[in-house]
Amino acid sequence: MLEKVLRVNALYDFYQPLLTPKQQEYLNLYYLNDFSLGEIADRNQVTRQAVYDNLKRAESALETFEEKLGLFRKYKTRLTVISKMKSLAGHLDREESKQLDSFINELESLD
Amino acid sequence: MLEKVLRVNALYDFYQPLLTPKQQEYLNLYYLNDFSLGEIADRNQVTRQAVYDNLKRAESALETFEEKLGLFRKYKTRLTVISKMKSLAGHLDREESKQLDSFINELESLD
Protein backbone atom coordinates (compact mmCIF):
# COMPACT_ATOMS: atom_id res chain seq x y z
CA MET A 1 0.00 0.00 0.00
CA LEU A 2 2.82 2.45 0.85
CA GLU A 3 4.38 1.81 -2.55
CA LYS A 4 1.03 2.55 -4.21
CA VAL A 5 0.62 5.79 -2.23
CA LEU A 6 4.12 6.94 -3.16
CA ARG A 7 3.58 6.18 -6.84
CA VAL A 8 0.20 7.96 -7.01
CA ASN A 9 1.77 10.95 -5.24
CA ALA A 10 4.66 11.06 -7.70
CA LEU A 11 2.45 10.76 -10.78
CA TYR A 12 0.09 13.35 -9.31
CA ASP A 13 3.01 15.80 -9.10
CA PHE A 14 3.53 15.49 -12.85
CA TYR A 15 0.03 15.15 -14.23
CA GLN A 16 -2.23 16.98 -11.77
CA PRO A 17 -3.08 19.77 -14.28
CA LEU A 18 -4.42 17.19 -16.73
CA LEU A 19 -6.95 15.76 -14.27
CA THR A 20 -10.48 17.10 -13.79
CA PRO A 21 -11.10 19.29 -10.70
CA LYS A 22 -13.05 16.43 -9.07
CA GLN A 23 -10.26 13.92 -9.70
CA GLN A 24 -7.76 16.40 -8.26
CA GLU A 25 -9.93 16.96 -5.19
CA TYR A 26 -10.46 13.25 -4.44
CA LEU A 27 -6.83 12.29 -4.97
CA ASN A 28 -5.74 15.20 -2.82
CA LEU A 29 -8.01 14.25 0.05
CA TYR A 30 -7.39 10.51 -0.12
CA TYR A 31 -3.67 10.26 -0.89
CA LEU A 32 -2.23 13.54 0.33
CA ASN A 33 -4.50 14.29 3.30
CA ASP A 34 -5.35 10.77 4.43
CA PHE A 35 -9.14 11.15 4.32
CA SER A 36 -11.11 7.88 4.23
CA LEU A 37 -13.48 7.00 1.38
CA GLY A 38 -16.38 7.51 3.81
CA GLU A 39 -15.18 10.95 4.85
CA ILE A 40 -14.81 12.10 1.24
CA ALA A 41 -18.27 10.68 0.47
CA ASP A 42 -19.87 12.57 3.41
CA ARG A 43 -18.12 15.77 2.50
CA ASN A 44 -19.35 15.59 -1.11
CA GLN A 45 -22.75 14.06 -0.39
CA VAL A 46 -22.12 11.11 -2.69
CA THR A 47 -21.81 7.38 -2.02
CA ARG A 48 -18.63 5.72 -0.85
CA GLN A 49 -18.76 3.65 -4.04
CA ALA A 50 -18.88 6.79 -6.21
CA VAL A 51 -15.77 8.13 -4.48
CA TYR A 52 -14.03 4.78 -4.92
CA ASP A 53 -14.90 4.63 -8.64
CA ASN A 54 -13.70 8.19 -9.19
CA LEU A 55 -10.42 7.50 -7.40
CA LYS A 56 -9.82 4.35 -9.48
CA ARG A 57 -10.50 6.30 -12.68
CA ALA A 58 -8.15 9.07 -11.57
CA GLU A 59 -5.37 6.59 -10.75
CA SER A 60 -5.88 4.90 -14.08
CA ALA A 61 -5.72 8.28 -15.85
CA LEU A 62 -2.40 9.02 -14.11
CA GLU A 63 -0.95 5.68 -15.25
CA THR A 64 -2.16 6.32 -18.81
CA PHE A 65 -0.49 9.75 -18.87
CA GLU A 66 2.72 8.16 -17.62
CA GLU A 67 2.57 5.44 -20.30
CA LYS A 68 2.10 8.14 -22.94
CA LEU A 69 4.54 10.81 -21.74
CA GLY A 70 6.86 9.03 -19.27
CA LEU A 71 7.57 12.23 -17.30
CA PHE A 72 8.14 10.43 -13.98
CA ARG A 73 10.41 7.83 -15.61
CA LYS A 74 12.46 10.56 -17.31
CA TYR A 75 12.61 12.55 -14.09
CA LYS A 76 14.10 9.58 -12.22
CA THR A 77 16.74 9.07 -14.93
CA ARG A 78 17.59 12.78 -14.80
CA LEU A 79 17.99 12.55 -11.02
CA THR A 80 20.60 9.81 -11.49
CA VAL A 81 22.53 11.77 -14.11
CA ILE A 82 22.42 14.93 -12.00
CA SER A 83 23.72 13.04 -9.00
CA LYS A 84 26.70 11.83 -11.07
CA MET A 85 27.27 15.41 -12.27
CA LYS A 86 27.35 16.64 -8.67
CA SER A 87 29.96 14.07 -7.86
CA LEU A 88 32.02 15.20 -10.88
CA ALA A 89 31.64 18.85 -9.81
CA GLY A 90 33.23 17.92 -6.48
CA HIS A 91 36.40 16.90 -8.32
CA LEU A 92 36.80 19.98 -10.49
CA ASP A 93 38.75 23.17 -9.87
CA ARG A 94 36.93 25.81 -7.88
CA GLU A 95 35.74 27.97 -10.78
CA GLU A 96 34.69 25.05 -13.00
CA SER A 97 32.98 23.37 -10.08
CA LYS A 98 31.01 26.54 -9.39
CA GLN A 99 29.93 26.75 -13.01
CA LEU A 100 28.80 23.12 -13.16
CA ASP A 101 26.91 23.50 -9.88
CA SER A 102 25.02 26.49 -11.25
CA PHE A 103 24.07 24.55 -14.41
CA ILE A 104 22.88 21.68 -12.22
CA ASN A 105 20.73 24.11 -10.23
CA GLU A 106 19.16 25.37 -13.43
CA LEU A 107 18.32 21.81 -14.49
CA GLU A 108 16.89 20.95 -11.08
CA SER A 109 14.66 24.01 -11.09
CA LEU A 110 12.86 22.59 -14.15
CA ASP A 111 11.66 19.42 -12.40
CA MET B 1 2.77 31.27 -40.96
CA LEU B 2 6.21 29.61 -40.77
CA GLU B 3 6.41 30.48 -37.09
CA LYS B 4 3.01 28.88 -36.56
CA VAL B 5 4.04 25.72 -38.42
CA LEU B 6 7.24 25.42 -36.38
CA ARG B 7 5.38 25.87 -33.10
CA VAL B 8 2.68 23.32 -33.93
CA ASN B 9 5.39 20.89 -35.00
CA ALA B 10 7.29 21.38 -31.75
CA LEU B 11 4.21 21.03 -29.54
CA TYR B 12 3.14 18.00 -31.57
CA ASP B 13 6.49 16.34 -30.74
CA PHE B 14 5.72 16.61 -27.05
CA TYR B 15 1.98 16.04 -26.86
CA GLN B 16 1.13 13.81 -29.82
CA PRO B 17 0.23 10.82 -27.60
CA LEU B 18 -2.40 12.88 -25.79
CA LEU B 19 -4.29 13.75 -28.99
CA THR B 20 -7.05 11.61 -30.51
CA PRO B 21 -6.11 9.45 -33.52
CA LYS B 22 -8.08 11.81 -35.81
CA GLN B 23 -6.33 14.91 -34.43
CA GLN B 24 -2.98 13.17 -34.92
CA GLU B 25 -3.86 12.22 -38.49
CA TYR B 26 -5.01 15.70 -39.53
CA LEU B 27 -2.07 17.51 -37.91
CA ASN B 28 0.31 15.03 -39.47
CA LEU B 29 -1.11 15.51 -42.95
CA TYR B 30 -1.50 19.29 -42.76
CA TYR B 31 1.61 20.40 -40.86
CA LEU B 32 4.11 17.62 -41.43
CA ASN B 33 3.15 16.46 -44.92
CA ASP B 34 1.88 19.71 -46.41
CA PHE B 35 -1.54 18.41 -47.50
CA SER B 36 -4.17 21.10 -48.17
CA LEU B 37 -7.46 21.26 -46.24
CA GLY B 38 -9.23 20.14 -49.44
CA GLU B 39 -6.95 17.14 -49.91
CA ILE B 40 -7.49 15.99 -46.31
CA ALA B 41 -11.24 16.49 -46.75
CA ASP B 42 -11.32 14.37 -49.94
CA ARG B 43 -9.22 11.66 -48.39
CA ASN B 44 -11.54 11.40 -45.37
CA GLN B 45 -14.81 12.07 -47.20
CA VAL B 46 -15.67 14.99 -44.93
CA THR B 47 -16.10 18.71 -45.63
CA ARG B 48 -13.21 21.14 -45.82
CA GLN B 49 -14.83 22.99 -42.90
CA ALA B 50 -14.87 19.84 -40.76
CA VAL B 51 -11.15 19.37 -41.37
CA TYR B 52 -10.50 23.02 -40.53
CA ASP B 53 -12.51 22.82 -37.28
CA ASN B 54 -10.73 19.64 -36.23
CA LEU B 55 -7.32 21.18 -36.94
CA LYS B 56 -8.19 24.29 -34.90
CA ARG B 57 -9.34 22.11 -32.01
CA ALA B 58 -6.17 20.04 -32.20
CA GLU B 59 -3.95 23.16 -32.21
CA SER B 60 -5.89 24.54 -29.27
CA ALA B 61 -5.48 21.24 -27.41
CA LEU B 62 -1.71 21.39 -27.98
CA GLU B 63 -1.54 24.93 -26.58
CA THR B 64 -3.62 23.89 -23.56
CA PHE B 65 -1.28 20.97 -22.83
CA GLU B 66 1.69 23.35 -23.08
CA GLU B 67 0.04 25.82 -20.69
CA LYS B 68 -0.57 22.99 -18.23
CA LEU B 69 2.70 21.05 -18.49
CA GLY B 70 5.18 23.43 -20.18
CA LEU B 71 7.22 20.59 -21.69
CA PHE B 72 8.36 22.60 -24.73
CA ARG B 73 9.29 25.61 -22.59
CA LYS B 74 11.31 23.40 -20.21
CA TYR B 75 12.94 21.65 -23.15
CA LYS B 76 14.16 24.96 -24.57
CA THR B 77 15.61 25.99 -21.20
CA ARG B 78 17.32 22.62 -20.90
CA LEU B 79 18.84 23.08 -24.36
CA THR B 80 20.41 26.35 -23.23
CA VAL B 81 21.86 24.81 -20.06
CA ILE B 82 23.17 21.80 -21.97
CA SER B 83 24.84 24.07 -24.49
CA LYS B 84 26.64 25.89 -21.65
CA MET B 85 27.66 22.52 -20.19
CA LYS B 86 29.15 21.48 -23.54
CA SER B 87 31.19 24.65 -23.59
CA LEU B 88 32.40 23.93 -20.04
CA ALA B 89 33.27 20.35 -21.03
CA GLY B 90 35.54 21.76 -23.74
CA HIS B 91 37.64 23.45 -21.05
CA LEU B 92 38.07 20.48 -18.73
CA ASP B 93 40.84 17.89 -18.59
CA ARG B 94 40.44 14.97 -20.96
CA GLU B 95 38.96 12.48 -18.47
CA GLU B 96 36.60 14.96 -16.82
CA SER B 97 35.52 16.29 -20.18
CA LYS B 98 34.69 12.75 -21.33
CA GLN B 99 32.61 12.15 -18.21
CA LEU B 100 30.66 15.38 -18.56
CA ASP B 101 30.02 14.67 -22.25
CA SER B 102 28.61 11.27 -21.43
CA PHE B 103 26.27 12.79 -18.80
CA ILE B 104 25.16 15.37 -21.35
CA ASN B 105 24.41 12.58 -23.82
CA GLU B 106 22.26 10.85 -21.21
CA LEU B 107 20.31 14.05 -20.62
CA GLU B 108 19.86 14.66 -24.33
CA SER B 109 18.54 11.16 -24.90
CA LEU B 110 15.59 11.97 -22.60
CA ASP B 111 14.28 14.81 -24.75
UniProtKB/TrEMBL annotation, chains A, B:
GO terms for molecular function: DNA binding. The keyword rRNA-binding does not apply. It holds the Pfam family UPF0122. It comes from the Bacteria. Keywords: DNA-binding. Belongs to the UPF0122 family. PANTHER family: UPF0122 PROTEIN CBO2450/CLC_2298 (PTHR40083), UPF0122 PROTEIN YLXM (PTHR40083:SF1). Might take part in the signal recognition particle (SRP) pathway. This is inferred from the conservation of its genetic proximity to ftsY/ffh. May be a regulatory protein. This is UPF0122 protein ACFP7A_02810. It comes from Sporolactobacillus kofuensis.
